[in-house]
Design goal:
alpha+beta; Alpha-D-Glucose-1,6-Bisphosphate, Chain A, domain 4; Heat Shock Protein 90; 3 domains; five-stranded antiparallel sheet; five-stranded mixed sheet; 53% helix; 20% strand
Length: 422
Amino acid sequence: MTSLFFLFRLTVSWMVLYFLCALIANDALLQPIGRDAGGFIAATGMLLGAVVLITAFSHLRRVRLITGEVNSSSLSNRQRRQIEIPFEAGAAFDLVEAAVRELPGIESVDSARDSLQLRAKIKRIDPYSGDTVQIQFTRHLRTHFNQILVTVAPNGEAGSVTLICEPERSAWSDWFFVDFATNLENAEAIVRSVTRRVAGLRRAEQASVVQSATEKELTVAKLSLLHAQVEPHFLYNTLASAQLLTRTDPARADEMLGNLILYLRHSLPRTEDSLSTIGDELERAQAYLDILKIRMGSRLSLQVEVPAALRAVLFPTMMLQTLVENAIKHGLEPKSGGGTVWILARTHETAVAVTVADDGRGFSAEGGGTGIGLRNVRERLRLAYGSAASFAIVANFPSGVAATITVPNTALNTIKKGAQHD
């Protein structure tokens, strides 16, 4: 029914226009023909009607080839699309502009990103330009260009795109001319291009998420392997020292075993990827250092300056322990006279900075290690906070090293919520 109405409308429009022009021109042009004037007008009108029907049928068939169906919207010379793009308005505008610029036959693009508007001119490629049956004498009356109008409206975190593809002529001409679905083709091409680009960006985001998850799992695996190598040595040395002290100094042996129990209580129940607090991590580190103080004697001293208000702040597990172990292993143990370990916590605006410093051998070749533990700290901070957290290690004065982890309070709170949801 829609197809029949379209053919009827186009034919009637041309017939009415033709006979009106014939009546006006009858006296001036057709009077010399005499009695045959009416027959000439009728014959010419029938020929014109046949050509119009052929042209309209070609347009109708091409629309069906492109869309697979025919309705009033697809038959129209002027196409309108409403596209919701799941990106902010500026990014949505960039996607549509790139799609428009890729169209074949594009002549010019006038883009205004601040107002989120775009106007483009595109050459109309007539698919039946070689058909002599078409209305050849009206070819110069038809437009040779189409235009594309784009407006993007912010819609929360998305961009709402209004796309209009139409001939470069007034709307009244649609009663007489067809565009052979060229604007329908342009509209569908832009929608396909935008869809493809959005899908590509989504795939890139998903790949990034998968890569981050893989990197995170790899880091956890490396940490697990590292602690699997370190913990047995620490436990063996502590138990061996406790066994020796049970014969010579039972009280100190009991103190060492108590510190070991406290250390294990804070170590064993947690995974490497869970969150702790500064207070819990400090208790673990102090238990570890108390054990070493029994073993190292006066060669090791400890100074802690952590305000009570900061002990409840969330902090990644085992990071403080890693810094303390590095200070002992690479700073104080190789130093004949030992030294001091400082554990400090300070607030800087919205961030919390935790520092472990020592006055050991510093960055000397004899005191340096492989750097695996510090690389793991940096990698875990990057995976957990991105650029919101930082890790710095500098030389201490007059000797030793100072390592500082800075984490924003807001990021820590956000991660805590995410961990609870998981």
